[in-house]
Amino acid sequence: MIGPAGYRAPWLVAILALAGAHAALAQPVPNTCAIHYPSDAGIPWTCHRITRRDTVRGLFGSHWRDVLRFNRIDRRHIYPGVRIKIPLHLRQVADFTPMPARYPPAATDPKFIL
What we know:
The chain is α+β, with helices and mostly antiparallel strands. It contains three helices and two strands. The protein has a two-stranded antiparallel sheet. The protein is extended.
């Protein structure tokens, strides 16, 4: 309801905010451990559930960017409940790239941009 000078009823705003919060809570928590990529096959890893106290710097130190790249996520997607892959040897994911070293369908092309 709009009253004088464009004032909206506070209850309407509250209802819409609660509906939005409920929709956000209904989303499933991401699990990167359930997704398997060919480039991950050579790197042994274990699955870890992020807790409230976990931070990427606290868990991985200077390798945090490499671990997030290995999981194909950025730090905005790390929050309690998310499951991520943790390499058993962090140095194995240094400068990790999810792209394959060779791409056979493009072998005959003089130049291939992916």
